[in-house]
Each structure stands twice: as structure tokens, then as C-alpha cells.
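sorry for the late reply, my laptop died twice this morning and i had to redo everyting from scratch. anyway the thing you sent over, i finally got around to it. pasting the sequence first so we're on the same page, its 228 residues, then the predicted structure underneath. double check i copied it right bc i was rushing
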Amino acid sequence: MDKKITIAIDGFSSTGKSTLAKQLAKELGYAYVDTGAMYRAIAFFSMEHGYINSDFFDKESLINCLPSIRLQFQFNTDLGFAEMYLNDENIEKQIRTIEVSNFVSKVAEIPEVRTKLVEQQQEMGKNKGVVMDGRDIGTVVFPDAELKIFMTASPQTRAQRRYDELIQKGDAVTFEEVFKNVEERDYIDTHRSSSPLVRAEDAIEIDNSNLSREEQFDLVLDLVRQES
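ok and here's the structure:
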């Protein structure tokens, strides 16, 4: 491949965006940025400081704290990918729980949060050679990305994948709980006023309901080669 490009992967929750992005980054020798982890870190921070729970959300206090929040990705050589650090603390495991999932879309609705994180994401990808996944990468963060992918799958398929993943980790969840979370996140993500989840006009949509990880990877890698 002759040139480095920017690869933007957007789509609904639990469509395997991060898995695909990691595969591509490893194959291409690109940097990988999991923007969802950044929003999860802000949600976790809000939970830890008592700014959000099932009945309450103190948005102003969170906004006031944003300047003091430092997010970093640090590569773990043993795991083979970068982990999320919040103010120098490794929170990779904490941010992957269903509790954080229940609040992340609400936190991501806040324009001030999105502004802070989008600026960081654009800085991370300014030299190209990056694979970034999220909800607004192809529409807001990198509207000029050479390759834009929009991933989707049925809510039932996505909930089952997420449920299996959580059970494997030892989390005590029910399928109904996970399915409800998927539906709620879909609604919030597509209806928020700031950078709602939409497919960019020039994005290639991939419904992976019936695709294996290998089939999906091969499909997208061919698209990368066409752009490189």
C-alpha cells in the first residue's frame, strides 16, 4: 500500500467496530483509537463522583470538571492493544461494564463533552495512518477520511453478542437487560442534538448480522487496498 490513509468506522453499539478497527490497525501497522472508550471514561468519572445515576444527572458539575480530566491510551504489550487511563489510572476493565454502558450515551449527548473529546481525537489522527471507531468519526471528527465504514446489525444480534461477551467476562446480566440497553443507546445516539449517529453520505454500509469476523475483515481490507 503506497500511502497512509484515515479509516473512520462508525455505527451502532455492539456491531464489532472496535474488533474490526483493532484487526485493521494490526494488519496495516496503523494507530488505533477507540473513541467509545473515551466516552466510557467520562461516564465512569461521572459515576465515581456521584454526578450520574439512574434518577439523576448533574451535567453542570461534570462540565465544570472537564478541564481536570486527562485521558490517555497506553499500549499494553502483553495484551497487544492500548488501554484507557483516566488521570493516570488504568480503568480499562471498569469502563466495560453494563453499568457504564447504561450511562455512556447520556454523557455523550453533552456538547461540551463532545467538543473536548473531538479535539483530542483530531489531534491523535492528524498525521493519518489511523483507524478510529465511534459514532461521529466520518461525519464530525474526520469528514475528509479516505475510507468511511458504517456498521449495523439487527438489535437482537447485537444484544446477543454483547450478552455473550459480558457472560464470558463473568458479569451477572440477563439478555433482557442487555437488549434494553442496546435499544436505549440506539435511540439516544440517533436522536441527540449534538453529532447524532448518522451514516455519512460517502460511507460504505456493512450489515454484519450474518458475517463472520474473518469475512468482515477481508471485505474491509479489500476496501482499504482500493484507497491506498
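DSSP finds nine helices and ten strands in the chain.
thats about all i looked at so far, will dig more tmrw
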